[in-house]
Amino acid sequence: MIRKVAIVYTPAKAKAVEMVNELSKSLSSIGIESEVFDSEHLMEAKGKIVADLVITLGGDGTILRSIHSLADYRTPILGVNFGRGGYLSELNPEEVPEVLDRVLKENFDVEEVMKLSVYAENRKLGDVVNEVYVSGEYIGKIIEFEIVRDGHTLLDGVADGVIVSTPLGSTAYAMSAGGPAVDHKLEVIVVVPVCPLTKMSPLVLPIDNFITLHLKVPRFHVLLDGQVRKVLENEKLTIGKSEQTVRFVRVKRECSFARRLRKRLR
Question: Which residues pair with 30 in a beta bridge?
Fold first, then answer.
């Protein structure tokens, strides 16, 4: 039963701010508690979202920040698109009034999507919905790296960076960098070198084992879902399937992978 709804919005969109007020009033009128979060300061506050349902009003960045701020990863997320692409969103703003009652009665499907866990040595850096991007310490500085699985080297070369993505994230930054579009129903890891100086192609690997990323530079940057940045020194990264998932609210019969592809290729 839904007793509390968290509303995460982008203050950059005036219409998103208007909808926050409308949603809060609608929820209050039927006895459902709501809590409102500004997406631009959500992760700075380092607080956690505690709710039965999260409604995001913004773009994919708003959704990703909300996911990284959940107290319980099992909390379902309904994305309303106020951004440019809205690849992860389920609804456009004008569709909200006609489906809100249905959602609050929990008359919806849940699409569960895998995450990847990222470790530096034995320290967990976090889980990603889309991708982890590894680059040099300075802009324009190349990195030399090696991808290893089960003791065997799969890639070894020099590039501006390397993206390791989930199937869901394959249609995001990884696809822009030349990687393949992969249906999120497949449990695989996608590895995409960014502007390689040596001949390297993207890889699609089964999720059954972790992969190790050896960086042959003293310092490098790690960016998780474009939201969390770490600077590491002389450490290897280990990446594999997370025990956590993401739960998206779905109220349409349309295949979400087909929808993302259509938006990306238009």
Answer: none
Q: Which two tokens stand for residue 179?
A: 């990687």
Domain that holds residue 45: 4-107
pTM: 0.93
Q: Is residue 253 part of a domain?
A: no
The 3-state DSSP class for residue 199 equals coil
Q: How many CB atoms lie within 10 A of CB 107?
A: 10
Helix or strand (DSSP H, E) at 17: helix 14-29
Same domain, 123 and 240: yes
Question: Is residue 60 annotated as a catalytic residue, yes or no?
Answer: yes
List 38, 52, 60, 150, catalytic entry? 60
Give the three-state DSSP class for 176.
helix
The rounded Cα 107 to chain-centroid distance in angstroms is: 25
Pairing between β-strand 4-9 and β-strand 53-58 as defined by DSSP bridges: parallel
C-beta of residue 36 within 8 angstroms of C-beta of residue 63: no
Could you report the per-residue pLDDT of 155-164, keeping only the tens digit for each? Answer: 999 999 999 9
